[in-house]
Amino acid sequence: MSYPGIVIIGGGPAGMSAAVAIATHGLTCTIVDEGFDLGGQIYRKPTNPACAPAPHPRGEGLRAEVARLGEHINVRTGDSAWGIFDGLRVAITSPDECTELLQPQAVILAPGAHELVPPFPGWTLPGVMTPGAAQILTKTMGVAPGKRVLVAGTGPFLLAVACQLIDAGVHVVSVLEASPRSAWLTLPLHGFRTPAILDEGLAYLTKLARAHVPVRYGRVVVAATGETELNAVEHAPVGAEWFPERNHIETEQVDTLLIGYGFVPRVQLAQMAGCDLELRPDIGGWIPVRDRNLATTVSGIFAAGDGAGVAGSLAAALEGQLAGMAATQFLGAIDEATFTAARHTIEHELARLRPLRSALDKISALQPGLMSLVRDDTIVCRCEEVTWREAREAVCAGSTTYRSLKMTSRAGMGACQGRFCWPFLSRLVAAEVKCPLADIGPPSARPPLGPITLGALASGLQDK
Ligand SMILES: Cc1cc2nc3c(=O)[nH]c(=O)nc-3n(C[C@H](O)[C@H](O)[C@H](O)COP(=O)(O)OP(=O)(O)OC[C@H]3O[C@@H](n4cnc5c(N)ncnc54)[C@H](O)[C@@H]3O)c2cc1C
Questions:
Q1: Which residues pair with 172 in a beta bridge?
Q2: What distance in angstroms lies between residue 41's CA and the mean position of ligand 1's atoms?
Q3: FRET label pair with 279: which of 13, 46, 271, 310, CA 20 to 30 Å apart?
Q4: Which residues have C-beta atoms less than 6 Å from ligand 1?
Q5: Whole-prediction pTM value?
Q6: 435 CA → ligand 1 middle, Å
Q7: How far does the centroid of ligand 1 lie from the alpha carbon of residue 259, in Å?
Q8: Neighbours of 243 (CB within 10 A)
Q9: Cα separation, 376 vs 391, whole angstroms
């Protein structure tokens, strides 16, 4: 079977919307998603519908559209894209370890983002996890992450997860938001064009209040403690730059800490394809450089959604639609006038979302005080168990780039290849050598994107 046309990597709101736009204009596309079903992070489908919450109607709507246009949309769930090579060749591997090399005429990258957890003492203890991980447990399997749960970090996602846990019958002790309450109170000024999103936030706060879950602003977790697993969390009030007031530490007895400080775009496939990147800390860090049509600097490759700058699911869907239209026009299936009119409408919608999003980005921007949490013996690369002392010694000896630090300290050498540690470790390095974060650079990316067995590699790389 061959898949001419367009390959979309990622089946979240961005990828599904791109596919619908492409198929609507009569072209064929293939969505590759390593999840067991389409939906991405927000519209993830439960594996056990009996005990998980009802799927999101927007997600169901998009899935139905993809199914309706099934003649033009080939869905490959369970398959991982692990490399992009010259000439738009995309390597994918299926769960039964078969590797294929697809050669489409255009590629849309819509791989989403992953969560950011800055290191702090005790963060590697069992019982400490990300809000997203807990959400996956409850949403897909109806499994509670713990008995007494503290949610901490920054951003509205914390409120969403805390509410989902309450619905699942979990005891949420409190939510700790690093930024001050005064900043959050300004949001209505920025969100008047998107009242539904403000209402959603208000509904979360109301639900938490009814469940007697306090939301405490201007507090950060400074340490997680326990012998072999988490049994307490220490947190402290912070000022504008999030430096903890250590003489006011409070201790909370919990068995689970969910901690997340926003999201980091997954840019590794764009990097492998040779797309230029730019540093945009306000929307998650390194992102592919894109033009107005969401085309990257590599001809035929487009990027949409959180993987090209974190902006939420509504913006991801709009961007996916635009990237789908742009790729369709790139292949000559729609004329310039039709495309320009569609782009105008989508840009208008995106502009409506922007003020609230920008305000949220400012409120949740990472502050330098987070770096003061790291101690000499704090692990900064979990895959290779490298401590900050070891990494800093390597930095002081001159290893100030991802590549050199990896060689000398093994930080970033493990299974995640720096995807999870480098977004924060690069900040620590930049602070240590007193240079701009952009000078430190992103982690280098090379295939395979994730661990892959030799059997899968040897299974016959054939052009499709
Ligand atoms: C863990 C997590 C939980 C979230 N929960 C919420 C929430 O409850 N409410 C909310 O409003 N927002 C939530 N968000 C944010 C929201 O999900 C995103 O803003 C939105 O989904 C972005 O859409 P997207 O299509 O760009 O990416 P995603 O929805 O993240 O979809 C990307 C898809 O790409 C796939 N993928 C990535 N790399 C590969 C690869 N190499 N090969 C194959 N497939 C790949 C992934 O499996 C995923 O399905 C969450 C984000 C995360 C990371």
A1: 149
A2: 4
A3: 13
A4: 9-15, 32-35, 40-42, 80-81, 110-115, 132, 135, 157, 160, 263, 266, 305-307, 312-313, 316, 449
A5: 0.95
A6: 32
A7: 18
A8: 17
A9: 9
As a whole number of angstroms, the distance between CA 306 and CA 287 comes to 9
> What type of residue is 377?
D
The C-alpha R_g of the chain, in whole angstroms, comes to 22
- Tokens 């035929």, residue? 300
Residue 381 is inside which H or E element, if any?
strand 379-381
Q: Ligand 1 centroid to 96 CA: how many Å?
A: 24
Extended beta strands in 56-207, E state: 73-77, 80-85, 89-93, 99-102, 106-109, 113-115, 128-129, 148-153, 171-177
Kindly give the number of the ligand 1 atom that is closest to the alpha carbon of 304.
26
**Pick from 84, 317, 273: which is nearest to 32 by CA?**
84
Q: Tell me which residue has its CA closest to atom 37 in ligand 1.
A: 111
d(CA 152, CA 159): 10
3-class state of residue 422 by DSSP: helix
Go through the domains of the chain in sequence order and give each one's CATH number: 6-114+264-334 (3.50.50.60), 117-261 (3.50.50.60), 374-440 (1.10.10)
Ligand 1 atom having least distance to the Cα of 269: 41
Cα of 319 to ligand 1 centre, how many Å? 14
Sequence-distant (6+) residues with CB within 8 A of 441 are 401, 402, 426
User: Tokens at residue 69, please?
Assistant: 């246009």
Question: Which atom in ligand 1 lies closest to the alpha carbon of residue 35?
Answer: 47
Each residue's pLDDT expressed in tens, for the chain with a length of 464 residues: 344 589 999 999 999 999 999 999 999 999 999 998 999 988 888 777 666 667 788 999 999 999 999 999 999 999 999 999 987 999 999 988 899 999 999 999 999 999 999 999 999 999 999 999 999 999 888 899 999 999 999 999 999 999 999 999 999 999 999 999 999 999 999 988 999 999 999 999 999 999 999 999 999 999 999 999 999 999 999 999 999 999 999 999 999 999 999 999 999 999 999 999 999 999 999 999 999 999 999 999 999 999 999 999 999 999 999 999 999 999 999 999 999 999 999 999 999 999 999 999 999 999 999 999 999 999 999 999 999 999 999 999 999 888 899 999 999 999 889 999 999 999 999 999 999 999 998 988 989 998 888 888 888 555 44
